[in-house]
Design brief:
Strand content: 15-25%
Radius of gyration: 15 Å
Number of strands: 7
Length: 155
């Protein structure tokens, strides 16, 4: 199975937090098939905070989506992620963006990620490593979603 993850940090040594999260993902969740470059981006939602360093990961895994989510939450906790303010500062943030061609709509998990089509900080790194991955909801590739978002933002 294959999962596309978004990963970011905006506290402390951002790169070190991301590198440790990647190490733990590889150790606990599967094989890192691809890792994007990282981009610095302004905060989303709650803007009174430092800029983020964001990237994307393609993970080959034997875990089911809920099991992967549990591992992700453990990694975030290991790296001292606290959830006080929605979209607030964090040492590490890992989201499941896509998982094969699955659609999951449950209280604790939504795949594809509910807002990834509107987030260039997710789409840009993901398009770098998986441009042809098809969003099972829209039927569009990641590259096409990014192009549409950039065209919308340019207006």
């Amino acid at each position: 199975m294959r999962a596309a993850l978004s990963i970011g940090s905006n506290m402390g040594d951002r790169r070190s937090y991301i590198e440790e999260a990647l190490r733990q993902l590889a150790q606990r969740a599967g094989t890192l098939a691809a890792v994007s470059g990282f981009i610095e981006t302004a905060p989303y939602g709650y803007t009174a905070q430092e800029n983020f360093l964001n990237g994307a990961v393609i993970l080959e895994t034997t875990l089911q989506p809920h099991d992967l989510l549990s591992v992700i939450h453990d990694i975030e906790e290991n790296l001292h992620r606290v959830r006080i303010i929605r979209w607030g500062p964090r040492t590490i943030d890992i989201d499941i963006v896509l998982f094969d061609d699955r659609i999951v709509e449950e209280d604790d998990l939504t795949i594809p990620h509910s807002d990834f089509r509107n987030r260039s900080f997710v789409l840009r790194p993901l398009a770098e490593i998986a441009p042809n991955w098809i969003d099972p909801v829209t039927g569009k590739t990641v590259a096409a979603l990014l192009e549409a978002l950039e065209a919308f933002d340019a207006d």
